[in-house]
Design brief:
The structure holds two protein chains of two kinds. By secondary structure, chain A is mainly alpha-helical. Helix content of chain A is 50%, strand content 3%. Chain A has 19 helices and two strands. Chain A has helices at residues 22-64, 68-75, 77-80, 98-101, 104-113, 139-153, 161-170, 180-187, 204-215, 223-227, 245-257, 265-269, 274-285, 301-309, 321-324, 343-356, 365-371, 375-385, 396-401; strands at residues 115-121, 124-130. In chain A, strands 1-2 form a two-stranded antiparallel ribbon. By secondary structure, chain B is mainly α. Chain B has a single domain (9-182), classed as Cytochrome Bc1 Complex, Chain D, domain 2 (Orthogonal Bundle). Chain B is 31% helix and 4% strand. Chain B has a two-stranded antiparallel ribbon. In chain B, helix 2 crosses helix 5 (171-182) and helix 4 packs across helix 5. The longest helix of chain B is centred in the first third of the chain and has 27 residues, at 4-30. Chain B is elongated, with a radius of gyration of 22 Å. The model of chain B is unreliable at 200-206 (pLDDT under 50). Classes of the chains: A mainly alpha, B mainly alpha. Chain A binds chain B through residues 44-46, 48-50, 52-53, 57, 216, 218-222, 225-226, 234-237, 263-264, 266-267, 270-271, 294, 296-298, 300, 303, 312, 315, 343-345, 347-348, 351, 374-379, and chain B through 68-69, 73, 75-81, 107, 110-117, 120, 127-129, 132, 153, 155, 157-158, 186, 188, 191, 197-202, 204-206.
Chain lengths: 402, 206
Amino acid sequence: MSEHPLADEAFEPYEPRRPVPLPVYWMAIALALWGAVTLWNDSTAQSSGVGQRLAEAGDMTRRHSAAGADLFAQRCATCHQADGAGVAGAVPPLQGSRFLGANPQLVVQILLHGINGPIAVGGDRFDGHMPAFGSVLDDGQIARLVTHLRATWGNGGEVDAAFVKAQRQATRERHASWNGGADLVSLDPAVGPQPAFLSAPPAPSDSVAMALARGGKAGGWACAACHGAAGEGRSGVPRLAGLPADYIAQALLAFSTGTRASDIMGPIARQLDGPERVGLGRLYATMASASRARPELDGDLARGATLALQGDDRRDVPSCFSCHGPSGFGVAPIVPAIAAQQPAYTAGRLAALGRHGKDDAGAAVMPSVAARLSDADRRAVADYLATLPPSPAIDTDTKDAR
Amino acid sequence: MNRALPLVILAMTILAFATMLLVVVPRAQIGSEPPAAGLRAYSPEELRGRAQYMSLGCVYCHSQQPRTPDQAPDGERGWGRPSVAADYAYDSPHLMGTMRTGPDLLNVGARLPSTAWHLTHLYRPRAIAPWSIMPSYPFLFEIKDHAAPGDTVVWLPREQRVAGKVVVARPEAMALVAYLLSLDRTYPAPASAIRDDGYSRVGGKP
């Protein structure tokens, strides 16, 4: 019997102890450090996010509680001038205006609904064309603004939010602006003799366009189903009321040819012929409706105001209003109104123009500007434009007649 | 397996930790979140449409959760503001989805409020966008010789119509469209809402 060396039955196999390689430790430590730094970064992002949200809320509160003088500087001084002198032949003066000396109800009503028609102030006749602030200023803001106006150029006396609320309630059925001085003299005869308002007779094509807008073509989709009964638009769907007629007709043509890509508008526009495009353009150009746009893109409103009013030289971005007209009301026939436009549409359209390089008419001016705007700038300017009052309707017929 | 007990305890602890962080803590955070002001409960018709939405598998391609501007340009796409927990108060289960093969639908009722458009799109997506890869749902519709009173006829572009026939929406299609139109969270988010504050925008501003 020979002893076999492997016959040791008591032997337990074991693995010799091998140390973990050093680089693995280094990697583990590096990962742990990275994780800790990320966690720390995230926690500061969280608190700075909360801080920014609070700052924005404070900014919003300040905008809503701005004193009358601040509101005048933001909203009125562009046209009526800081000293209320107006612009000879274009914008009526506030200094010595009988409209401010009259009862406060009149001033409140003008601010709520705007003016669209000839008006006589201080012996001069003006082509009254004032936007309606009812949809962008709340009762308290209008009260403070009117109090400021009357204290500076009128008879003095305070107006409170309850008074504005009652006035708003009294004329809530009114959707159009006041038809010039002729309408206003009926509210308060103290404003003196006013020129007559002659409304343009409706063109025969208007009823066809109205039917198209409300019912669609041959049972198809109606414009009003998405753009609203008064062309006011909704989140992401553009406002059409007050856009120049030619601009709308050209956009419809661009949709139908595919120059401007849109899954939704393409099939609709292809069903329309030339006269229908023109008719729809005229219809929406002459529509006036309250603004339904509100800032919704988390944009920086102060930056948006700077871009709209002054532009940004460093980025070679001109002021929006230098082409789109004072207060962004558009310049007929082809430069669209941008005030009170739905912010998601404005920002999306700017992004699309910047990428595409051509607008509906094939021009490259706006696309080249849009391409220089950053994402934050697009949101800022879109949100700022949503705080502006809508452009007064374009009365194509009276313009032609003159 | 001579250390079964410690192994089981360790596994259970890991599971309990995960359950704590993924279920219990979020539940405590958002479980008592009240519905947002401006949000209304679904009607029975909309709930039937919601069941259709689930059974047709819409959630596999469509999310219902617009992101913050830091994460994606959803606002510019017209998909709406970033959603908050209170927006889903009536959604059980929520249909947030994970894939975005198609657009986000949380605000589709706001940006496409036309019933007629949705019917055409569900019947034949290619009638609207020739490149669309969305499946068509012809079984939600009926092709008839004449529309009976009360029928909803689906509009089709001129070149897509079948001569002498009309396409009529079945109740399932109407319910689904009612649900889609109810997807509208465009009211302002509650100031106290639980939300993703995103990343720091310091330096992101121009």
